[in-house]
């Protein structure tokens, strides 16, 4: 009787409906999980494509070919602007009126005379001769050639008037206006003119800052981890240190900037915008990351190693320096690289200590004014010119490239040296 | 220059001290090393420490106090008409002297006395550098000689060296405490100065924020310009939007990865989230300002809504994307920590996988998930670059996600970027904001860590 009843129960319409409902819920739940991951990956793809599509053209820059006659008198007067102007007028013999000539002047980068001057300084023998040189075009011309300004909009709404477009078309048809690899981007410092702006100054600044960060946070962090993991007695004091480290790891980065501003700049009077201060602030910020990862690495070395070393008469410090540390090194190294990658991408604390200044020169020392790559991105992102948007994206690609290399190295080290005991 | 030379000399002396110590120790027992108390390399380290450490201490003390001392000497030598002013003017004067001394133009007409003071500063600095070089180098040589003298077969070199090293280890581990103390003190000190100008009540409960107004002397501390309520409402709005994006997506990703995905799929999915976590915030900010904001705006226009070009929505969404990996990796850990026996029991009763997850795994992991969300909230509150680049500067007290709002971190960043005087309430208010921000994130973190610790081993 009960068997029959339960059988009918399991075969009842209501049971089947409920089961269908439960399986549907199961399916929907699984779909929700897939959808969440799909959304996350989609955002990543959108982010990367939007940056690459905005910025890949920045790696090329329009150059204009000119036949310059380096007249001796003009060179002595350092009137390189006039030399360039004569050269560009010579390419357009039909244009003689003032407006037309002004249009032609605007084709060239405002930095072109300095470029020419540098060329002459480098090779004084060319004075008095006629040379074929390539100079950068103005950034608007560059953007037009790259197709960012619509050509068929009404003239009043266009950045470039008809005369300029005609001149550009002529140059392109002559083969005198071509795109070539943008070396300026990788060799110059910042500039107000997009075509003369580069990220080399920011890269050097980033490297100097990271050097200071690494020199401070790695030894201090590893020493602190060794102490806490190997020597520290378990008492209130070490508990306090641990709580501190965990909290510091979660303090917003901008607070470290305030600390740097008040202590390093305000109290110790260190120079503003200097990589040494940036490095100090970053070192304090990455210290918890390095301590935590180094402790994990030390913890993964089995106690038998320590016992064996102690057993043959090594002192505790010898045990650590001769055996435990070398075995934990790959893990420590991985954590260090990840910490450095984080420091490389960090912006907010550096804004506080003045690394956001407009700096044209390439920094040469730890106390020179400098900026770093992420801050350069932040500053360029504010510029309204189209050419700067393009360069911002290019700078982001370079920054992401560095980060990928660093993280890839960390993964490689982990894979290669990871040891299971 | 002198400093580089000093560092080189110190390095050289330390290395040669090590060599000397080793050879002398070996020589002192005629090569029969067993008669030594410590192995020769410890004698080497002993001498090297004597050569390096005292000079290093001197170097650190000297460079820490040098700037301050020299500045005092320069200021006291100034003519009375310049040095008599109030502290604010004096600070400006100091900055001018420093700038001229470093060869940076101030862009103003400069008093000849200031130029003279800058020259005085530079000459004092040169004297200081040379004397540091001389004293530091001789201290190192004396230390080296002293340490070398002490070497004998019975010298307990290992014990002494290890003692120094363990003291160094303790000092290194205290840097974390020092940093916290430094943060608290610097924030408190500057914030207290701010609260002497603006009452804390007005600061915490005021509903108007316009620090720019207080730039004019007659308006210093004028009531109502420093109310942080609109900043907090803005921060909260963006945080809520970010959480609405990050928590469901992050949690569902974690659940799928730990419960459904097979190991092969997981090795492909995990890096995607790791890449999202590794992208610098400034890149997210650029994306929010240049891609997300116009996108949100055009969708809003399509729906007939009026969307600000710096809407809280776009900044919040992008911040949510940034936090997804954070939520997902933390929840992944707590979900994996739920013992398999609980799942097996649930399956044994006939529950489907999703029923097991919803009714057994998630309740078991709930404290950890709550802690993860709290940590994520604390991150969202403290995040600076996305909101600085993509949200506005106007302090609107609004709950409309399509409006522009400003946040605490944005204000800190904008108040302190560019030229600033250290004594205006405008600059100091940033430290007041920083203190509040620090306290809020600290308490969130503390509570979250406590929750994790308290419930971590409940099922083991």
Overall description:
The complex is a heterodimer of chains A (421) and B (460). With 421 residues, chain A is mostly helical. Helices cover 68% and strands 5% of the residues of chain A. Chain A is extended. The model of chain A has no long low-confidence stretch (mean pLDDT 88). In chain B, 76% of the residues lie in helices and 0% in strands. The longest helix of chain B has 41 residues, at 157-197. Classes of the chains: A mainly alpha (421), B mainly alpha (460). Chains A and B meet through helix 2, helix 10, helix 11, helix 12 and helix 13 of A and helix 2, helix 6, helix 8, helix 9 and helix 10 of B. Chain B: One of its GO terms (cellular component) is plasma membrane. Chain B: Belongs to the binding-protein-dependent transport system permease family. CysTW subfamily. Chain B: The chain crosses the membrane at residues 43-64, 130-147, 167-189, 231-251, 272-296, 316-339, 360-381, 430-452.
